[in-house]
Each structure stands twice: as C-alpha cells, then as structure tokens.
Amino acid sequence: MEKAKISAYQLFVLIVLFEIGSALLVPLAIEAKQDAWLAILLGMTGGFFIFFMYHRLYLYYPDCLPTTYVQKIIGKFCGRILAFLYMIYFLYLAARVLRDFGEVLAVIAYPVTPITLNHAFLVLVVIYTVRKGIEVLARTGELFFVLIYLLAISGFILLLVSGLIDLNNLKPMLEEGLSPVIKVAFTQSLFFPFGEAVVFAMILPYLNNPKKAKIIGLSALGLSGINLAISMTVNIGVLGVSQVLRTQFPLLSTIQMIQLAEFLERLDIFFMLAVIVLGFFKISLFFYAAVIGTADLFHIKKPSQLAFPIGFVLLFLSIIIASNIMEHFREGLQIVPVYLHLPFQIILPLLLLIIAFFKNRKKRGQGKPST
Amino acid sequence: MSRRLFLLFFIMISAVLLSGCWSQRELTNLAIVSALGIDKNEKGEYVGTFQIVNPGYVAGGLQGGAGGQSAPVTVRKSTGDNMMEMSRRLSTHLSRKQYFAHTNLLVIGEDLAKEEGILTILDVLDRDPEFRTTASVVIAQNGTAEDVLKALSPIDKIPANYVLKTMKYTEERWGENIDVALHEVITDLISPGKEPVITGFRFTGDGEQAEKLEKLQNTTPEALLQADGLAIIKDGKLTGWLDGETAKGAVWVLDKIQNTAIIVNWKEKKAAIAYEVIRQQTNVSAHIKNNTPSISIHIRAEGDIGEVTAPVDLTDEQTLLKIEKKVEQEIKKQVDNSIRHVQKEKADIFGFGEAVHRSDPAAWKKWKHEWNDLYFPELQVNMTVDAFVRRSGLRNKSYLSEVENNH
Questions:
Q1: Which has more confidence, B327 or A22?
Q2: Searching chain A, which residue's CA lies closest to the CA of residue B365?
Q3: Which member of A1, A248, B313, B343 has the lowest number of beta carbons within 10 Å of its beta carbon?
Q4: Does A116 touch chain B if contact means CB atoms closer than 8 Å?
C-alpha cells in the first residue's frame, strides 16, 4: 500500500467517472426495451446494497487493503489465493474495458489501424498515471470530471433545443410487466456497472476521512445511476427502441442526430472525448487495483515497478480475450456477469463479511473484559 | 544519457504515429459524394448514381472565375449485385476515393421502390460509419434516380442542395411534402404500427437539356426538379402516391405542418380568404372500446389572415368566428380525404398503430400482425379541429370594402 491520501471529493469524482465509464457507451439494459431506465435505477438500488457490503468490510479493517485483510479473515494460505484471484479479476476487467474502448475507436474513427496500436497508446498513458500513484489519478479525475459534465450538459441542451427527444418512444411503460425489467436489472445492470464498484474496496483505505466513505460511495453511485438512466432515456427518446437495439454505441448515434442551425452538427467529437476520458479512468482504476494489490500480496516495496510488466500483460490480454467484437460483447453480457461478477462481486465478499463479522465479534467479546 | 536518448526517440516516434498519418485522407484525394441514387436495371443489378462535387467549380462567385465553365458536379454510374459491390466498382472510373460523410440525399428510383422495395438497399447505409443516417430520402417519381441526380439546378449550384432546400422550405411553407431522414424511414419500416412516407421528386421538361450547363443561362430553365407527392411505402414497397391536398392532409396528421395557407370561400366568392397557419399542434390518441380500436385526432391551429379578395369586415368578431369555423371545416375536409384515401391503400402511414400500441399494449399484440390489412382500413377516426385567427397583417378591413361602398 502506497503512502497516499485522497479527499472525499476526489473519491466521489473517481467513483462517478468509473461508474459512468464504459456503461455510457453501450446499450445498457436494452433488453428491458423502453424501460431500460427503470432497470438501470433498480440495478443502482441493488448496487447500494453491494456497496454497503464492501463498506462494512472496510470498517472492520480501515487501514489495510483487501489483499491484506482477506488473509486476516480466512487465513494466510486461502487468503493469498483469493487475493490473487481478485487481482486476475481486476486485470481481466481492465482488459475488457480496454477492448471496449479499442473497438469503439476501430469502428468509428480508425477502421484500418490495428487495434493493438490503439490499445498500446492508451495503455502507455495508463501505465504512466498508475506509476505516479492514486493521488495523481484522483487529481486528474477532478479536472476531467468538470470536462465530462460540460460535455454532457451541452450535449443534453443541444438535444433538447433541436427537439429530437420524443418521449412517446418510452411508451408503453412496462409493456411486458415488471418481470423482464427485474430480470435485466439483477442479471445485468446490477453487475455492470454498479457491482464493479468492488474495485473501490482497494481504493477506500486511501480515503483521508473514513467517516465519509459511506455517504460518498452511495451518493456517487446514485449520481452515476441517475446519469446513466437519463442517458438511456435520451437515447431511446431520440432513436426509438428498435434503433437502440440495433446499434453498438447508441450514444454516438444520438449525438449524430443533432443538426441545429445548419452548423451545429456532426458532434461526434463529444462522444469521442467522453469515450477516451471515461475509458481512461475506468482502465486506470482497475489497473491500479491490480498493480497495488499484487505489490501488496508479494511484498513489493515500490508498486510502481510493477506498472510496466503488468501493463504489458494488460495489453496482450485485451487482444486475446476475444477474436471479434461480437464475441467480446457476448461474453460481456452473458458469461462474465454469471461466472465472474456474481462470485467476485457478491458471493465472495458476502462470505468474507460473514466470517469477518463472527471473528470480530469474538475478538470484541474477548477484548471487553480486559478493558 | 541513454534515458535522454530514449526519450528523444520516444517523442519522435510519437510525433510520427500520433499525428495520424495512418489511413489519412487528403482533401485532394476525396470525391465528395453529395447525393446517392439507386435504381435497378433489366439484368436485376443495382445501378448506383453518384453525384460528386466538383470542388473547383463550386466556389466560383465573383472572384472565382472558374464557376460557369464546367458543371459544379460530376455524375457517375456503377452497377453491382449489392450496394457494396456497386459502390466499390465505381473506383474503376473515378480518380478519387468516394467520401460519404457529406452525402445528405438518397434518391430511390420509382421502379426499384415499386418492384423490389427499399428494404434490401438500406442496410449498408445504416451500418456504414461514414454515411449519415440523417441523410434525407426522396423517391424519383415517374423516373429513375439517375434522372433526378443528373439535372443541374439554378440558384443553388449543387443539385443535391437544391433538392434538400426545396424540400425543407416547401415543408415549412406549404406542407405537401416532408423531409424524411433515412433513420426515420428505417424505424418506420420496422415498426408494425407505422409505415413510412417519402417525398417524391419529379423531373419536368426536356431530359436531354437537364444535364447541360447552358440551360442554366436561360431565365426559365427548360428542365427542372420539383417536389411532388408523398410515396406510401407498405412492407418496404411503394404502393401509391398522395398528391396535393391529400398529401397535405397526411402532413397535418403527422404533425409536420409548420406554415401553410388554407383557402376558404366567403359567401359566393371562391377562394376569398387565405388563412395563414403560423403554428399548429396535432395530437393523435387511440381508444379501445368493446375490443375495437378508434382514433381521435385533435388539431389546434393558430394563424393570421393573409389575404382577402372579397369585402369582408375583419373588424367584426362574429365574422372572425365564422372564418375560424370555415377554416376548421377546410382542414377537416383535407384530413378526412387523406385518411380515407390512405385507408384504401391499407398502409398505416399515420402511426395510428403506434398510438394503439401505446394506449393498450396487450390488445396491440393480437392486432399487430393484421393491422394494416384488417384493422387500419376499418378504423373509426374522430376529429376535432380548433382554428384561431390571431391577427390580420397590417390592415384590418380590406380596401375592397370601400370600393364596394362607393359603387
């Protein structure tokens, strides 16, 4: 664990950028059709409970990284194996986001450039940032948070002014009843993006004011959930459900619809800026967690030394995880949530929490008479 | 030292790679396609017509000098069994790479739209990241897309712009045609509760003359493009046309009327008053009673008196109420005719099915498969129109009233 502290506001900014991250680009929860926004908000509520879980674990061990406290909870041997699995999980997710990002660029802007090269340039920036530590990443976040919101608000105003949003597209509400919405919420949007906040278990110990962790986490999840729901509502309002279902990147199509006053058009750059900035933060946070955790696990004094080697693993992993974009998205929607997100985001932390609860109760029970 | 060298090397490499020479496209190597036309020939191949901007001759103006010597666009043809093949084959006789990001117009030949339909040709345009789905779609009435794209135009040098602006302003000021974007057409093609309508463009005059630059030197061009009618597309195929007032009635229902003129009679005099619509709002809603759907349309129009050709006392409120009534009847007549006409065509271009879908999704599930053929033609449509006269221009009573008094 590096010697660094981040403020409550910085943590808030990081969580929001991270959660909006790649979820903004893809047709999130579109299986719920015009009720996607509802599925996102439901997923967010579920996300609150998941975050409570990570937060309780953090309260038991406020000064050390999860890689250390799992060893305290379930013993050295098992704890190390579990911690190692988590590092692989984070690295895999970093690679997935990197691939998302690379595919977006390949489809929209660089059809001929090898995707490896797109990835390599971003990975270089990510490695550089992670070498500098969490404080630098957090400060960068503060800077870009403003930019992202400026983009989002101006884009939203342009869409409103050009009268593209047709709320009739959101009707009829709950066409197939509530069950498909709940199904989508708790098989997809709960895990992606809200459950991915598990990575902040690795960041929470850096918070300079531990009391604020809960309120910051919940408000950041809430803000990002509402933003994502608004974004999907706008997408569906502008494009209609059928078109959102067909597109890989609905937000881009939405932005392309803006044609105002004969010159405010072709604002694809809004989307590209958002993709690159948000992608950068999401990859950096996953990657940072993987690096710092590995360093902690293997007692490497300077985590920054690991940034380059793991960075290259990240780069190659991002290329080999899927052979084409369809495979990549299919894995992301169908396989990863069930086989990776469910155990790593919910089941394992829950087990850890239960064990930690009993252990700490015993400890406290023993501690009491002596004081 | 070696670290510095490495840094220097790194910066130089970055400068080369990051400045984007990969897949670079120089302006001088691009053929900017302003409009794309699609037809079908006897062999069953697609014929693509590409209207390519001739950059040197567009800028013209007073200083340019070059304008006027050569046509502002070049039109090229190419054939293929699908759109991609056709588009790529064009490169055998084009010295530049086609660039579709500025293609704002797609013209579809009437024969192609009638016989094969438009379903198969739109996928590539929807999929391609360069082509914009905000491009407008028109159908070449009584002719091929090639005819439409070949014709040169006065005032606006690039013919594609001429078509687009004509369509835009006629929608805005007259309301018999509407500017429909490609993505709207695709959305309507998919939806079981709404069929697309596409504006038709007709070529009038001498075809031979149209592509000659000299024709533009006359004050009255011998050949001209003209927006005419709305094409009804059913199951992807063109099945009929709406013209004149029936087209306008359809535009009313679609809530696309911006400004238009409603002409009403006064006493014995025909076309005595012109009512100029300034703004309007049309609401369509569906009701289901006894397991049968019905539609109610509510139109609320506001406008001014634009012209009177009979002595009408516009200062009298009772007169204004009467005028409003007449305007309401006229709008109602137009819309009624249009709906009846379209019901005979059995193609729900108004989106009544969508309205039913919104108000009763469960019932819609049973009806949607036979909506166009069974339910839509029999649909009961109730309509209320509220028209309001707000102002009457710079004058109140017309001078005609005084002329009348003097006699």
A1: B327
A2: A175
A3: B313
A4: no
